[in-house]
Amino acid sequence: MSIFHRSIKPDTATKESEISQTKKQKMDADYFENYGDIAIHEEMLRDKIRTNAYRMAILKNYKKFYGKTVLDVGAGTGILSLFCVQAGAKKVYAIEASEMAEQTRRIVKENEMEERIEIINCKVEEAELSEKVDIIVSEWMGYNLLYESMLESVLFARDKFLKKDGHMFPDRASLYIAPITDDDYTDRLCIWNDVEDFYKVSMKSMIPYARRCISKTVQIMCIPQEWIQSHGCQIFTSNLKTSSLSEIQKVQSNFEFKCFGHSTIHGFVTWFTVEFPDDITLTTSPYTDETHWSQTVLHIRDPFNVEQDTTINGSITIKPNDSKPRFLDICLVHKKDDGHEKIETFLMDEHLT
Ligand SMILES: C[S@@+](CC[C@H](N)C(=O)[O-])C[C@H]1O[C@@H](n2cnc3c(N)ncnc32)[C@H](O)[C@@H]1O
C-alpha cells in the first residue's frame, strides 16, 4: 500500500517509502515476535470451538485431502497440518514465520509425521515451493475478522501456490453488525458523579470527555445476547477462492436495522463467520458459544433511545491503517429515523480493551 501522494518528488518519495518500509518491517517483526510466544498458541488451542471447527472441516472432508498436497499458511504449532495428515494428505508444507517453527518441528516429530510435513520457517511471501498445492488451509482471522491483515498473505499464497481447481479451507468469510445497548455503560460513567459523595469535590464536567474516551476505544468482549437490539446485518462477505486483494482491503457497506423494542443504543457489535466445504461453519456470534475472538464493540459518543421498529441506518468502512497496516481504521456513520447523521471513527490498534 502506497502512503505517499503524487505531488511528492521521486527522491523524497523514495525516502518516505524507505521509512515506511522500515516501519512496516518493524511492525512485522513485532507481530511475529508475538506469535513466537507460547501464550498466544495456548489461547488458540484452548479455544475448542475454533480448533474443533477446523478439525471437523478437515476430517469430514477427508476425500478432498486423501493423497493430496496441502499448504498450511501460518502453521503455528502445526495443529492444522497434523489434522491434514490424519485426513490422508500426502504432503503438507507448513509455513510459519515466527520462531514457533522450531517447536513445530518437534511436534511433527513427536507425531511421527516428518515424512509428510515439511516445516518452512519464513514468511509465505518469501517462500518457494517445488510444486503447486491442491489445498490451502489457514487460520488467519483476527478480531473483527480483518485485524492483523493476515488474509492478504493467504490470498498471496493462493495466487502463487494453489492449483486452478484447488480448495481453500475456509472458503468463505463474512462479517456482521448489530446495534446494542450496553448495561455497563452508565456504570462506567458513575465515578464522575460519585466523586462528589466520596471526596466532596465535583468532577461532573468530566462526563462528556469520559463519553468521548469510551467511544474512541474498541472493546473486545463477549456480550450478553440481550444487549442486541435488532437482527444483524451482513456488511462483508468474501469467496476466498476468487476474492481479489482490493476487495478485502476495504470493506464498505450500508446497513439498516429495525429495532426490537424500547431501549437505549450505546453502540454496535460486530462478529464474523467462516465457512468450510461440507457446510461446516465457525461463528463468533454472540448467540453461540464463546470463542477467543469474543465480539468487537464500537461505542458511540451520544447514546440514543429507540422504540419498536425505530430505523437505524448508515454505513461502515473498515480498512488497514495507512501507517500501521496490521491495525484497522473504522468509520461508522449512523442515523436514527430521519435524524441527523453521526460520524464515529475508531482506530483498532494495540490499545484494545
Ligand atoms: C492465528 S495463528 C494460527 C496458528 C495455527 N495455524 C493454529 O491454527 O493454531 C497465525 C499464524 O500465522 C503466522 N503467520 C502470519 N502471517 C504469516 C506469513 N505472512 N507467513 C508465515 N506465517 C505467518 C503467525 O506467526 C501465526 O503463528
Automatic annotation (TrEMBL):
<keyword id="KW-0949">S-adenosyl-L-methionine</keyword>
<dbReference type="InterPro" id="IPR055135">
    <property type="entry name" value="PRMT_dom"/>
</dbReference>
<dbReference type="Pfam" id="PF22528">
    <property type="entry name" value="PRMT_C"/>
</dbReference>
<feature type="region of interest" description="Disordered">
    <location>
        <begin position="1"/>
        <end position="22"/>
    </location>
</feature>
<protein>
    <recommendedName>
        <fullName>Protein arginine N-methyltransferase 6</fullName>
    </recommendedName>
</protein>
<keyword id="KW-0808">Transferase</keyword>
<dbReference type="InterPro" id="IPR025799">
    <property type="entry name" value="Arg_MeTrfase"/>
</dbReference>
<dbReference type="GO" id="GO:0016274">
    <property type="term" value="F:protein-arginine N-methyltransferase activity"/>
</dbReference>
<dbReference type="InterPro" id="IPR029063">
    <property type="entry name" value="SAM-dependent_MTases_sf"/>
</dbReference>
<dbReference type="GO" id="GO:0042054">
    <property type="term" value="F:histone methyltransferase activity"/>
</dbReference>
<feature type="compositionally biased region" description="Basic and acidic residues">
    <location>
        <begin position="8"/>
        <end position="18"/>
    </location>
</feature>
<feature type="domain" description="Protein arginine N-methyltransferase">
    <location>
        <begin position="171"/>
        <end position="336"/>
    </location>
</feature>
<keyword id="KW-0489">Methyltransferase</keyword>
<dbReference type="Pfam" id="PF06325">
    <property type="entry name" value="PrmA"/>
</dbReference>
<dbReference type="GO" id="GO:0032259">
    <property type="term" value="P:methylation"/>
</dbReference>
